[in-house]
Amino acid sequence: MPGRKFADGEVVMGRWPGSVLYYEVQVTSYDDVAHLYTVKYKDGTELALKESDIRSQSSFKHRKSQSSSSSPSRRSSSRSRSRSRSPGRPAKGRRRSASQSREHKDDKKKTIQETSLALPVLVLFKPSENNTKRYNGEPESTEKNDTSCIILEQKLKPDLEIKRVLEQYSLRSRKDDKRKEEIYSEKKTLVAVKPIEKVPTKTKELEFGGRIGTFTLMLLLPATVFYLLLMCRQDDPSLLNFPPLPALESLWDWRVFGVFLLWFLLQAVFYLLPIGKVVEGLPLSSGRKLQYRINGFYAFILTAAAIGVLLYFQFELHYLHDHFMQFAVSATAFSLALSIYLYVRSLKAPEEELAPSGNSGYFIYDFFIGHELNPRIGSFDLKYFCELRPGLIGWVVINLAMLLAEMKIHNLSVPSLSMILVNSFQLLYVVDALWNEEAVLTTMDITHDGFGFMLAFGDLVWVPFVYSLQAFYLVGHPTTITWPVAAAITVLNCIGYYIFRSANSQKNNFRRNPADPKLANLKFIPTATGKGLLVTGWWGFVRHPNYLGDIIMALAWSLPCGFNHILPYFYVIYFVCLLVHREARDEHHCKQKYGLAWERYCQRVPYRIFPYVY
Hints:
The chain is α+β, with helices and mostly antiparallel strands and 614 residues long. 51% of the residues lie in helices and 7% in strands. It has helices spanning 72-79, 98-123, 129-135, 148-154, 159-168, 180-190, 210-232, 254-272, 296-312, 319-322, 324-346, 363-369, 382-409, 417-435, 444-447, 453-466, 469-476, 483-512, 545-558, 570-594, 596-604; strands at residues 11-15, 22-31, 36-40, 46-49, 54-55, 277-280, 291-294, 376-377, 380-381, 524-526, 532-534. α2 (98-123) packs across α5 (159-168) and α19 (545-558) packs antiparallel against α20 (570-594). The longest helix is centred in the last third of the chain and has 30 residues, at 483-512. Pathway: Steroid biosynthesis; cholesterol biosynthesis.
């Protein structure tokens, strides 16, 4: 096995992938298996490079030759002179006319101009901080509104100019001259905009408290769900009034579990229907793009039709309310079984298909975060399916069941105004998510996190049974509100929804097609990755305006429950904690990814979620 040539901490010159440009980098680590060096550039960007792409600083010297001091035209003319002939006389038979002399002078000027044009290109090879920033998409001005510059940054300089630089200046030792053609061919290959392949590495930074924290969450999350549901059934759901524990045999019902399985399979059938468009997701680390069928809204329409048929034949939908705890236990058991299956199959998954956040080598941590990024059975994407279908659509069905249960228990001809507001607000949120289903492909859940217990439990248990907490609370604790109060709460929800939807639309449209003429008015900060950081619109107001809109809507969903107990406000309290933690994860991830550009963005947009507060 060949040994490593460069040590950790050593400052060397690293070639930027797909180019002939070398920059000063520092070696941070070495992978003995893949034989790759992890190096860090001055702007904070970290890349994995082969040993052949790394040179010592001492090898970057100008080659001393006659070509560096004299022009080609002068050398060619000196060779044609005789020792006895006057320097001013041309050779016999080669006396030049006046026009030929002028052409010769023009050629000399052109050659000098070409040499001077090539010199600034050579300067880029020097490890200068300013030049590094400029190459990495960080110009002297921190903002741009010409969206085409992102695309231009990804294009290469003309091949002729690069070839001329390689011929006139030696940036390598003489024994490496034979590699010129290989470098030049690499340039031409890069013109096809072939993505740079990245070899997945082990997860070094553990989140959620590492192994101990994730193990604690695996016990705490189900316990929290059961505690909230038991509290809602009490006449006095105050925090100090701890509910009595039910008998274990009362928590499980095979019929309920069968109904849950039937629901899951029904949504899977709707997912597989050949309706809706097929789109590509963001590029994976290998450069491959997965295909997804966008038909969540159609699945919602079909589900609504199926529920309508059941109600027409007088099916008692409030059965969900009567066995709500048993449904939660069944969903928890199913999510645990699904998580075990996902982890077992991930052990045979190729290295490039593992999640960057769940490849630590620790069983508990990888089981919780998710070891495989996009587990699929054929074309059936398990993570993408669970993200929006069974839990999110199930949330709406549960709310409807609570509405019908309220009418039955309290002998109402129409639902209460509070119940109507909660159902309407949350129905709008779910329909919006399904209508804009394609936007979920750019979220951290799809692009970064693996599919393990965290997402399986969150999608199938936490979302439908905790997000419907307000409707479940109102069944046992009816709250009367006036029409003016209802109108004020509606306005608050509309404000939150407008911020949430417009901010997400700006981000998603810019990520999909930054060169869209409709986005020409948006300003952004270019980054070394070729992407831009928006600094206008909602994204120039706070760094996460979509989180701000989410929190405002969460408050509007809880207000119809009144102020007698804090229990219905658990959702908004939890949601603030969740989004603050997710924002911290985003900050850490973006700082590593974008380097100095992210620091400039933070200076330009100082507030994270709440303007002038946080």
